[in-house]
Design brief:
By secondary structure, this protein is an all-beta fold. About 0% of the residues lie in helices and about 65% in strands.
């Protein structure tokens, strides 16, 4: 069995209009060294909060205590034009649900250089009290990420052998291409007009940049990783910074900063099977986005997650699942709180 390699798996997540998803890097820790892989990956994210309707001002205020931002009355996208369907106590449960299906390839070229490629399809829903009020789906942006190992411990045999110290330092840089959909408009409400014999209802369409599968812009990623392992235990740390540019609609997502740290353990079940468990923390930060040279309301902030994952290896196949639980949110403006994230992946090595 070869030694552990830490792969960059960038999440090209769709940004949400209230809960800015903040660019994230998913860490795949795998006991396969110098092997290429292809994978299918599923990503699920959910944001939710309870809001109370103020009938006097026709606005909503957040009643959930899960977020640390102040509670104050503010109109909310998607529901401000039709505040129907409230519960008997005058509350509205607002939910944003994002699902992405990715095709991922990690290609090794020699001992030090690798090329990471991914594209995705996203299906995003917005709910008000379990009723769908918006749905946008489509192809997401493509990512090309080049990684280079500045140094690494050379090992000839089994990485699970005892009394073995391994460490490596990797740097990377890449580009996100505007291949995804970013101009799909949603129905915000209806405008009624009258003629002599007819009443005409015309839908009012609105472009919400944050719910789009793609960004419409060329974006850039800088990243670094350091992994250290002794015997079957290890720690992985990585930092990434995403630089976003303006799209042709005049909208620009804010630059995004991420720090991740994970502790992992490898258990060799037999000659063909390995079980790896990992747990750690992830921190995300972003300033507000820009629309026509003005700051976009209800975007940006910071969040801290704890995570736990399991990965099972059998010959040249692996299956993994990681769950992310938010423990801290400070999101600017009126955004629903992070509730949970799940990432699952099926990989084949060659």
């Amino acid at each position: 069995m070869n030694r552990i390699i830490v792969l960059f798996l960038l999440l090209t997540l769709v940004k949400t209009s209230w809960a800015c998803d903040l660019c994230s890097v998913y860490i795949g820790i795998q006991p396969r060294d110098f092997q290429s892989s292809i994978a299918l990956r599923y990503r699920y994210r959910i944001f939710e909060d309870k809001y109370t309707l103020n009938s006097n001002t026709n606005s909503l205020s957040k009643t959930s205590g899960s977020r640390l931002t102040p509670l104050y009355d503010m109109n909310i996208n998607h529901v401000e034009d039709g505040l129907t369907g409230t519960h008997n106590d005058g509350t509205i449960i607002y939910t944003e649900q994002y699902s992405s299906f990715d095709v991922v390839a990690n290609l090794m070229f020699g001992k030090r250089f690798s090329l990471f490629l991914t594209t995705s399809f996203s299906d995003n829903y917005i709910y008000q009290n379990d009723s769908i009020i918006d749905n946008v789906s489509g192809v997401g942006d493509a990512l090309i990420l080049a990684n280079y190992r500045l140094f690494y411990t050379k090992v000839a045999n089994d990485s699970l052998a005892k009394n073995k110290f391994l460490h490596r330092f990797t740097i990377g840089g890449g580009i996100e291409l505007p291949t995804g959909s970013f101009n799909k408009k949603s129905v915000k409400g209806y405008e009624t007009s009258f003629t002599a014999n007819t009443i005409i209802g015309q839908p009012l369409m609105e472009l919400d940049e944050h719910i789009q599968p793609g960004t419409g812009s060329f974006n850039y990623l800088l990243a670094t990783q350091y992994m250290v392992k002794y015997n079957r235990f290890g720690i992985n740390n990585d930092i990434s910074y995403k630089i976003n540019t303006k799209n042709r609609n005049g909208f620009q997502f804010a630059n995004r900063f991420n720090v991740n740290s994970s502790l992992f353990y490898l258990a060799k079940l037999n000659d063909k099977m390995i079980l790896m468990s990992n747990t750690g923390v992830s921190y995300e930060y972003s300033q507000q986005d820009w629309r026509e040279n003005e700051k976009a309301e209800d975007s940006g902030g910071e969040a801290l997650f704890t995570n736990f994952g399991l990965q099972f290896f059998y010959n040249n196949i692996s299956i993994s699942t990681t769950y992310f639980q938010p423990v801290y949110n400070y999101l600017y403006g009126n955004q629903p709180s992070n509730k949970a994230r799940v990432i699952s992946q099926l990989s084949i090595y060659f």
